[in-house]
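Worked example 4.2. Below are the chains of a multi-component assembly; read each line carefully before continuing.
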Amino acid sequence: GAGVSQTPSNKVTEKGKYVELRCDPISGHTALYWYRQSLGQGPEFLIYFQGTGAADDSGLPNDRFFAVRPEGSVSTLKIQRTERGDSAVYLCASSLNLQGELFFGEGSRLTVL
Amino acid sequence: KQEVTQIPAALSVPEGENLVLNCSFTDSAIYNLQWFRQDPGKGLTSLLLIQSSQREQTSGRLNASLDKSSGRSTLYIAASQPGDSATYLCAVDRGSTLGRLYFGRGTQLTVWP
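Applying the procedure described above to all two chains together yields the following structure tokens:
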């Protein structure tokens, strides 16, 4: 597609469940970023990939969060044993390279009941 | 840790006014500063990028300035229009990776006809 695509756009789950959020970057973009935006806050960095490898995962809040990008294109953010505090909009962005302009998707809104 | 503050948190003005949005950051060792726009339920759109060697950037009715020594940036919007209504986010990076950003909470702008 022409832009960064994120699915699902909305996800409601129960506390303790497992969730996967998908990001399909712009074709040819080697860098991919995940951010989390809580209500009334600015986005917070979680992790970024250069190609298939996680170049910086220092923003992941704890070991319940994990992200993969096995073929250097689509990425999946995985959250285990979800907690109510995980409720937020998860934003994905991609760029041509690590010095390129970021293009953001519309986000996946996660609600943990 | 880098802290980014945006003032005001919200702004409501009539159409045609010239506006100033402020951003400050605590660590002046930044490489770049960016201003983004976020519409409700949408992702972020990059408006202006000021590299560390620059002092300002202009795009149409938007002008952004950067003073690294004082840790401040200003976004100036000329002749505001209802279509400018959105949340404006300021973000800085701290390394060669453009996408590893620290965001402020944003200024929510409403321009009424």
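Take a moment to check your reading of the output against the notes. Chain B has a mean pLDDT of 92. The interface with chain A takes residues 4, 41-46, 49, 89, 91, 96-106 of chain B (CB under 8 Å).
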